[in-house]
Amino acid sequence: MPVAGERGYVVVTKDRAIRRTPMEVAIVRNSRVLYFALTRGNMTSEQMSAAILAAWPHIARIARSGKGRRAVIARITSVGRVNIGETWP
After folding, report:
1. Is 20 exposed, middle or buried (0-12, 13-18, 19+ CB in 10 A)?
2. Count of CB atoms situated within 10 Å of the CB of 53
3. 77: which DSSP letter?
4. Could you tell me which residue, 19 or 11, shows the higher pLDDT?
5. Helix, strand, or coil (residue 17)
6. What is the rounded CA–CA span in Å between residue 69 and residue 38?
7. Distance between CA atoms of residues 15 and 31, nearest Å
8. Which tens digits make up the pLDDT trace of 32-74?
9. How many angstroms separate the Cα of 66 from the Cα of each of 14, 33, 51, 61, 89?
10. At 43, is the secondary structure helix, strand, or coil?
11. Are 31 and 5 in contact (CB under 8 A)?
């Protein structure tokens, strides 16, 4: 996570449980990572690709909207909706 934060990468994963683990949340927050987790772990690769592509405009807006870098933990639904769970300046 620290490397992703330093480079300004967006992290997209299937690990939804991170938001329930305080140590992992702290790593995302301290690394200033934009972290997006798919809500359904049993999607096919085609379904995941479609959800990420549908969500990408919203993800890009979130990435551009912060002044400086910030941390976000959000979810991507199977139809590409983005639900922000937590955000830090």
Report:
1. exposed
2. 10
3. -
4. 11
5. helix
6. 22
7. 17
8. 999 999 998 789 999 999 999 999 999 999 988 865 578 999 9
9. 24, 12, 23, 9, 8
10. coil
11. yes
Question: The tokens of 10 are what?
Answer: 């967006």
**pTM score, whole prediction:** 0.90
Range of the domain at 81: 2-88
What's the mean per-residue pLDDT of the chain?
91
Q: End-to-end alpha-carbon separation of the chain, Å?
A: 17
Q: Are 35 and 72 in contact (CB under 8 A)?
A: yes
Beta carbons within 8 Å of 72's beta carbon, 6+ residues apart:
33, 34, 35, 36, 62, 84, 86, 87, 88
CA distance 69 to 89: 7
Task: Say if residues 74 and 18 touch (Cβ distance below 8 Å).
Answer: no
Number of domains the chain is built from:
1
